[in-house]
Amino acid sequence: MAGIDRTLVRSLTLFNKTSDADLDALLSSAASRRVPRGEAVFEQGAPATHFYLLLHGRLKVMQVTADGQQIIVRVVHPGDLFGFARALQRIDYPGTAIAAAESIVLVWPTDMWAVFLEQNPALAIGAMQTIGQRLEEAHTRIREMSTEEVERRVAHAVLRLIKQAGKTEKNGIRIDFQISRQDIAEMTGTTLHTVSRILSAWEGKGLVEGGRQKLLVLDPEGLSRLAEGYRD
Amino acid sequence: MAGIDRTLVRSLTLFNKTSDADLDALLSSAASRRVPRGEAVFEQGAPATHFYLLLHGRLKVMQVTADGQQIIVRVVHPGDLFGFARALQRIDYPGTAIAAAESIVLVWPTDMWAVFLEQNPALAIGAMQTIGQRLEEAHTRIREMSTEEVERRVAHAVLRLIKQAGKTEKNGIRIDFQISRQDIAEMTGTTLHTVSRILSAWEGKGLVEGGRQKLLVLDPEGLSRLAEGYRD
DNA sequence: CGAATGGTTGAGTGTCTTCAAACAGGGTGG
DNA sequence: CCACCCTGTTTGAAGACACTCAACCATTCG
After folding, report:
1. Position B36 in a domain
2. What's the domain count of chain B?
3. Spatial distance from the CA of A150 to the C1' of C12 (Å)
4. For a 10 Å CB count at each end of chain B, is N or C smaller?
């Protein structure tokens, strides 16, 4: 499909070993799609017909349990591959990907996955590193949920967010997409009430500045100390 | 290295698309190593010089947090790849792999990883599926830790164990390696005390039969119901 | 301007952890 | 072969952390 910005894609670490020719081949079979805020790219349980690359914006991947509880499995940042369910012999998507901000994604049919990897071993290694990192993030999260109490988990989650989606402002670092207390709760395995209380307390200490679906971190250092378990 | 059982390796799903010639090449650069119960294959933080395949036995991969708390990241079963830290540009092992039973592992130098994948795209896809499955398991565990209370998490963990390491006996299904309450606690993010109480209660209901580092599941059905959240 | 969504805060409660003590079994050395 | 020790397990009691329930407030959007 025409009109895809090659220089933007070129700059992604995933493709830093891919030749220009190979990259053109990849892009030629991709489509790009604009996703408005709040809309789903794909839904949990739907057949995995495509896989995706986020070019611009921000997505939340959510899962709903049998009894209706929601959790956020991960946040997708620009440059991330996502929705590659078929890469592991799944026929459906294990979660729902929702745009937390207006987003642009590249789309390929799932059949292309195996083709690309076989034709392009460097990409296979890159993709594997990507998945491997994701695995390690998941283990980190498991460790945190096993050993840390809620306040530290929330601190870690917020630190991760400003690292991956932080925009420096005059007073501190802003999370550059709309995120609710409910979202943070679903990322840390707690309730929005507890998150609200924690953020209020932090605001009182001058660590952060809240707002409706907004969060500005004033003192990342202090938050780090909290995350590492220093009592007060 | 001579003396590695090719038919055993051949039967692993990981290699079901690998040609005999390629498989021989792989095995020719591997060494096999016997690991007695309680001994570590590699230690957390040590340079990732090798990657491994478990042929026989059972391993626990553990992580220790900064403040000394332990968790079990996963259990390694025969046929599983493990310790492939370098596959994701890590230079050290993120955890410690300890033999929960006398084990036999195949060992390769990490340099071989990239070589194998580039020479053998089918293997790359197989390896990626392996890692992908692991990622999904991790997400499942995160979901359970976020939304389920301890008893259900323990039930899920035990069900997973009998599925992956269950040996049918006359009265039920036995977990076929030594596992302590502490281990189960570290797999589910709770304390050995709570696990002990839960297992005692289950024993009272005739669901399981305990013992020192032993566990026999008498009623998998009943356990499943518990895991799915049916109150009593 | 009103409805809807998101956020705050209080009170009460329950699950699980922590602290503590005692017990069981398996292996080892005398 | 038995006593002892070490490790793993059981169980009780107290307390804390975070959840649930509930009510109210604030902000945004149609």
Report:
1. yes
2. 2
3. 20
4. C
